[in-house]
Design a protein that fits this description.
With 200 residues, the chain is mainly alpha-helical. It has one domain. Helix content is 67%, strand content 0%. The chain has seven helices and no strands. The longest helix has 33 residues. The chain is globular, with a radius of gyration of 18 Å. This is TLC domain containing 1.
Length: 200
């Protein structure tokens, strides 16, 4: 629960204070309104801040996956800000961060050492639903959309490659979450020293 925790909770909602004229079914629509593009800079700043926080607190080795994720996110958002395209896609991608609220609650429950098995059990099922609703589903839709409708060259190719890499990372995190909360016997005997809260 570091300095990046509060921005992590607020970041997913920041672009929704603007109402883009495009329907959500058109993630590739262009939008160059300066005020709305300004709102998109907040998530980029969050990812930069969180990356620096990880580096300066000497957590780079144990959190290298987060640094890779943030590097891809930063490059994607900078690309979107420069071109003014795919703003609705960016908003859908930020839905992914909503599940971080519940993953953070899970981490706090594990770190608090307070005996609350019922609360933890409830949280792990909520986590499962939120991970599917806000990570897997939006990511799957955007991947399908980009592969089917977006030109595989220039910015389109760059963002499609980013999406495919994020798909792999999200599925890897999901498998770790399932093993940790629903199949703990698979983790017996493993050395978890230094591992992140998602796989503890």
């Amino acid at each position: 629960w570091g300095p990046g925790a509060v921005p992590a909770v607020l970041t997913p909602f920041s672009p929704f204070f603007c109402s883009p004229p495009q329907p959500l079914a058109v993630p590739g629509a262009a939008l160059r309104h300066p005020g709305r593009l300004q709102r998109l800079r907040a998530p980029a700043r969050y990812f930069i801040h969180d990356s620096l926080d990880i580096i300066f607190n000497h957590q780079s080795r144990s959190s290298w996956e987060y640094l890779v994720h943030h590097a891809m996110a930063i490059s994607a958002f900078v690309s979107l800000i420069i071109t003014g395209r795919f703003l609705v896609a960016a908003m859908l991608l930020l839905l992914v961060e909503v599940s971080n609220i519940f993953l953070t609650a899970r981490m706090l429950l594990k770190m608090s050492n307070v005996p609350s098995p019922a609360l933890y059990r409830a949280n792990k099922y909520v986590n499962l639903v939120m991970y599917f609703a806000f990570r897997l589903a939006p990511q799957a839709y955007l991947t399908w959309y980009f592969l089917r409708h977006v030109e595989v060259q220039g910015q389109g190719a760059f963002l499609t490659a980013n999406l495919l890499l994020l798909d792999a990372m999200i599925l890897m995190y999901f498998s770790r979450l399932l093993r940790s909360d629903f199949c703990p016997s698979l983790r017996q005997g493993r050395d978890v020293d230094g591992e992140k809260f998602l796989i503890d």
